[in-house]
Design goal:
Layout (H helix, E strand, L loop, with lengths): L1 E6 L1 H9 L4 E4 L6 H10 L3 E7 H6 L2 H9 L4 E5 L8 H9 L6
Parallel strand pairs: 1-2, 1-3, 3-4
Amino acid sequence: MELAVVGKDQFVTGFRLAGIKKVHEIKDDGELEAKVNDVIDDSEVGILVMNSDDFNKLPEILREKLSESVEPTLVTLGGTSQSSNIRDKIKQAVGVDLWK
C-alpha cells in the first residue's frame, strides 16, 4: 500500500521532498474533488493525506465516504479546523491500537 497526498503546492511540497510518489497537486479548488476521486479509485493507495481545510471543501457525500473508508484511510493535517486524530485513523485501518 502506498501513501497519497492531495493538496495545494505549499501543502504537498514537503511530502515530495520526503519521497512520496503519489502527490496530486491542485491549482484551485475546482480540481480538488476530481483528484480525490482519482485517489479513491487507485487500489494501490492505503492512506490519503489532505489538509483539513481542503477536506472541508469537498461535497458532504464525499466527506462521509472518506470518513468511513478503511482503504484508503484519510488523515487530515493542518488547517484552521480541528484535525483528525492520527492514532484513531491508524486503529481504524489496522484494527488494533498500536500504542498499547
